[in-house]
Design brief:
The chain is mainly α. The chain is about 50% helix and about 10% strand. The protein is built from 18 helices and six strands. The protein has a three-stranded antiparallel β-sheet with strand order 1-2-3. Strands 4-5-6 form a three-stranded antiparallel β-sheet. The longest helix is centred in the middle third of the chain and has 27 residues. It is globular. About 40% of the residues are buried. The structure holds s-citryldethia Coenzyme A. S-citryldethia Coenzyme A (SDX) binds next to helix 17.
């Protein structure tokens, strides 16, 4: 919990001064507590995009953007990527500690045993066009799960929340695979309880009734690492969305459905798809990398180097470093030559020596290399952000649960500075211009 320091900050406004308490986090980050600001001064703060505003205390994930540090419940992401599994990391994020043998067995088995969907869920898929983007389908179907489990929606009932957590983590891969099968006109493949989480997902994606697909263990492991790297990232756009929706006491399915929609945007999770589209354009344009570096720097050109830049990381994104190493291994295993990897590495090399990127502290983020690995796995482009959602699900859940347990719990309701018309009056239509 944020610790209130003896320190305060003095705010003087119109000859009146107030002392605002300073709260301090575990690693010394400090926050000005303005919860009494309006009541004592009539002032509110103004901070578009909450660039300078903390929304909560949290003990789940720590980022140090200056030093490129990412810890899940205190454990460095590098150690989890090397030694853990996605389901174990999900347990760590949600329950606050690594599971012991019994806890791990119960959690993993429960997830496997809830991976099937109610047969009526398939009817949702028959209602969407084959061209539907899977993020739209996944958001809709996840939200609709609340209609199948009306008896387990109370955010303050521990048992309701527990079973909903297991159902969500278990069923999202199935929902995702079904959205892919729908888009290519193939029959849905049921989950296979004998497989691990990632192998099960890949089998549902690529098996057909007449030909089984069993993922190469190297590929399944690479996907597991990708999910670990995406599992949480403190108060990013989609996590803040999950918290905001949950703060109205909406159920967990509704909150996660909103998070999936927020993640879809190309400035957020949709960037992994946008990176590949960008690399494809550069490749088809003859690989003229400097042309695109110049476009990214041109204020009058809307082009951005997708997969570069981050609100928090003003140094390297540790996840991107891990993924860059993984890329070549997966490509070698798949026996794939990927020209996009060469372009990506040249882009990174040139950009990191360019003053524009150096001054604005723009480094490759998690999305810059992840798409290259997904391509090598033969994951279709419009499923990339869905994989981000599968990975981020435990983080969304952990943050939502933490919010409900927070003694400062309140419904989220930001203020505004009104800049519209002064008070006017209604004009009859015949008098209007
Ligand atoms: C994710 O928050 C999280 O933790 C997110 C995430 C997670 O795990 O949840 O890490 C996942 O969303 C990663 C980010 C994926 N998005 C992209 O790769 C899209 C490209 N990147 C950007 O659009 C941008 O960098 C953001 C959205 C990531 C961050 O935007 P900010 O913090 O609001 O910064 P900004 O847009 O104000 O940019 C600051 C300056 C601007 O120049 P000036 O107006 O100050 O002159 O840097 C420039 C921008 O024009 N800039 C870029 C750039 N990113 C920022 N210029 C060229 N290419 C880019 N990619």
């Amino acid at each position: 919990m944020g610790y209130f320091m003896k320190e305060t900050a003095k705010l003087t406004y119109k000859e009146k001064s107030i002392e605002l308490p300073v709260t301090e986090g575990t690693f010394g980050e400090k926050g000005l507590d303005i919860s009494k600001l309006r009541a004592t001064t009539g002032l509110i703060t103004f901070d578009p995009g909450s660039v300078n505003t903390g929304s909560c205390n949290s003990s789940i994930t720590y980022l140090n953007g200056e030093e490129g540090i990412l810890l899940y419940r205190g454990i460095p992401i590098e150690q989890l990527a090397e030694k853990s599994t996605f389901l174990e990391t999900a347990y760590l994020l949600i329950y606050g500690k690594l599971p012991n043998q019994d806890e791990n067995k119960y959690f993993s088995e429960s997830i496997i045993n809830h991976s099937m969907l109610h047969e009526s869920v398939k009817d949702f898929y028959s209602g969407v066009p084959a061209t539907a983007h899977p993020m739209a389908v996944c958001s809709a179907v996840i939200g609709a799960l609340a209609t199948f489990y009306p008896d387990a929606l109370d955010p303050r009932n521990e048992r309701h929340v527990e079973i909903s957590i297991h159902r969500l983590i278990a069923k999202l891969p199935t929902i995702a695979a079904y959205s892919y099968k729908k888009s290519i006109g193939q029959p849905f493949m049921y989950p296979d309880d004998s497989l691990d989480y990632c192998s099960n997902y890949l089998r549902m994606m690529f098996s057909v009734p007449c030909a089984e697909y069993y993922a190469d263990p190297v590929i399944a492991k690479a996907l597991d690492v990708l999910f670990i790297l995406h599992a949480d990232h403190e108060q990013n756009c989609s996590t803040s969305t999950v918290r905001l929706v949950g703060s109205s006491m909406a159920n967990l399915f509704a909150s996660i459905s909103a998070g999936i929609s927020a993640l879809w945007g190309p400035l957020h999770g949709g960037a992994n798809q946008a990176v590949i589209e960008m690399l494809q354009n550069i490749h088809e344009d003859g690989g003229n990398i400097n042309k695109y570096i110049d476009k990214a720097k041109d204020k009058n050109d809307p082009f951005r180097l997708m997969g570069f830049g981050h609100r928090v990381y003003k140094n390297f994104d540790p996840r991107s470093r891990i993924l860059k190493k993984y890329c070549q291994g997966v490509l070698d295993t798949m026996g794939v030559y990927e020209p996009y990897l060469e372009i990506a590495m040249k882009l990174e090399d040139i950009a990191l020596k360019d003053d524009y990127f150096i001054e604005k502290k723009l480094y490759p983020n998690v999305d810059f290399y992840s798409g290259i690995i997904y391509r090598a796995m033969k994951i279709p482009l419009n499923m990339f952000t869905v994989l981000f959602a599968i990975g981020r699900l435990p983080g969304w859940i952990a943050q939502w649960v933490e919010m409900h347990r927070d003694k400062h719990f309140k419904i989220g309701r930001p203020r505004q500075i009104f800049t519209g018309a002064k008070k006017t009056h209604y004009e009859p239509i015949e008098e209007r211009q």
